[in-house]
């Protein structure tokens, strides 16, 4: 069980990348969530963003999304020069978080993070609020309308610090509902999709599918579809659920 104290903080991370391959981070943003004196989780003042030189030109398609151009990162430090100072800052930061954290974990390797546990707010959102229609970062922002979210700080969307800030409000609400240990456990499992994401059965909840259809979907290559189908089969007593933990990331919702 995780031991909490007054300086315990969780750091939310968001990365933007150049779109040209491995180790091509061009911006990192962060926002801390901490434990207040009343025992409730809150958004801290510690947040920021840093440009990173990806060591290669930024793809035009990436520029069109993030509006980060080569001139913005030309004199910036390289990823391995700055990553640990943000990912392993000490001073109470015990865990890292990201929305669809499997992406960030490709770059934020254990050697850079010190092996910190991760919380994936995408996976945890589907567990806590399965009734919602979409689980993207921005859709969750407007579906849930978290208390205290400053619209100006949370813009522009698809930039590292504003996206981390938006995700942090979701994490705060999660931490005030369930324990850190539960969120970490859910994050280690594949995503538990509330509904079938594609195909002829798209949009149906898993309990509406036949056993035959569930067995077919349990053979899917997508780990989240496979896990969701197997979970329903297990609930019906048709299959023993064997969970392979890891930061796997399925399709967008």
Automatic annotation (TrEMBL):
One of its GO terms (biological process) is DNA metabolic process. InterPro entries: Ribonucl_H, RNaseH-like_sf, RNaseH_sf. Residues 9-180 form the Exonuclease domain. The lineage of its organism: Bacteria, Pseudomonadati, Pseudomonadota, Alphaproteobacteria, Hyphomicrobiales. One of its GO terms (molecular function) is exonuclease activity. It comes from the Bacteria. SMART domains: EXOIII. It comes from Rhizobium grahamii CCGE 502. Keywords: Exonuclease, Hydrolase, Nuclease, Plasmid. SUPFAM superfamilies: Ribonuclease H-like. This is Exonuclease RNase T and DNA polymerase III.
